[in-house]
UniProtKB/TrEMBL annotation:
Cited PANTHER family: 3-OXOACYL-[ACYL-CARRIER-PROTEIN] REDUCTASE, SHORT-CHAIN DEHYDROGENASES/REDUCTASES FAMILY MEMBER
Protein name according to UniProt: NAD(P)-dependent dehydrogenase (Short-subunit alcohol dehydrogenase family)
Cross-referenced InterPro entries: NAD(P)-bd_dom_sf, Sc_DH/Rdtase_CS, SDR_fam
Alphabetically ordered keywords of this record: Oxidoreductase
SUPFAM superfamilies from the UniProt entry: NAD(P)-binding Rossmann-fold domains
Record-linked Gene3D superfamilies: NAD(P)-binding Rossmann-like Domain
Organism: Mucilaginibacter terrae
Coiled-coil region: none
One Pfam family named in its UniProt record: adh_short_C2
Family classification: Belongs to the short-chain dehydrogenases/reductases (SDR) family.
Length: 268
């Protein structure tokens, strides 16, 4: 069984690698034996984190919305490692509002800025498309590979806006349309690629995580936990086992699937 989950000698790319979950994805793949490409936009930070993982890993700058950037990165990776075996499409935008006083007004669907919606489309959908096209084509040519597209529970169900109310019952902001729309698209894009590249030996699956505890208010954490059968939000490392499973031969007969790891959020 240990061999089934081994990624020894495999080359794995993680986009959005410097995020909270992205770092845990990188650590999980490295611990399973993969050579990990830490891909994000901060050159110093990706190099530093790659060194933290160990000598066989590489930090590389990628703008997932630019085909030129992704292509240049692909060439550099192949020059050093020869193959690309695993792609984790993790890079994504989740709305943040610089002025908390304006968050409720700007996040309301009636007022939500078009440029914010377009930016989410560019990163969350176009970024997945471009990375899959460039890195996945290498996999198709070599006859093997695993692509893991990170979606969300909000790619399957609509946001419960009530959990974004404060202790007084006031709506502090709304979960916008951009995140659910883009994550829903990612799930169906996975199905397209799985069907398209199945005969090339490339497996494509979705990992749909639930919400991760990350310094939210106690009120929010309690509301979220109350809607989850396991009674808590996720910890950042709760997805590591699922990721290694999808990346490894342990899931060799699995493609086009959506692996939901959400503590039961979507079960009720």
């Amino acid at each position: 069984m240990t061999d089934l989950f081994s990624l020894h000698g495999k080359t794995a790319i993680v986009t959005g690698a410097l995020g909270l979950i992205g770092r845990k994805h990188c650590e999980a793949l490295a611990n399973a034996g993969a050579n990990v490409i830490v891909a994000d936009r901060d050159e110093c930070a990706v190099e530093q984190f790659a060194r933290h993982l160990g000598n066989s890993h590489l930090g590389i700058v990628i703008d997932v919305t630019s085909k030129e950037s992704v292509t240049v990165a692909c060439e550099a990776i192949l020059h050093q490692y020869d193959t690309i075996d695993i792609l984790v499409n993790n890079a994504a935008i989740n709305d943040m509002f610089e002025n908390p006083a304006m968050a409720k007004e700007l996040s309301a669907f009636e007022n939500y800025p078009l440029d914010a919606f377009q930016k989410s489309l560019d990163v969350n959908i176009t970024g997945v498309f471009l990375c899959s096209q460039v890195f996945g084509s290498v996999m198709a040519e070599q006859g093997s590979g695993s692509i893991i597209n990170v979606a969300s529970t909000y790619g399957m169900v609509g946001p419960d806006q009530s959990i974004y109310r404060n202790e007084c019952g006031e709506q502090t902001f709304y979960k916008s349309a951009a995140y659910p729309v883009t994550k829903g698209a990612v799930i169906n894009f996975t199905r397209f690629l799985a069907a398209y590249w199945g005969n090339k030996g490339v497996r494509v699956n979705t990992l749909s995580p639930g919400g991760v505890e990350n310094n939210q208010s106690e009120n929010f954490i309690q509301k979220y936990a109350a809607k989850t059968p396991l009674g808590r939000m996720a910890q950042a490392n709760d997805y590591q086992g699922a990721l290694v499973y999808l990346a490894s031969d342990a899931s060799a007969y699995m493609t086009g699937a959506n692996l939901v790891v959400d503590g039961g959020w979507t079960a009720i």
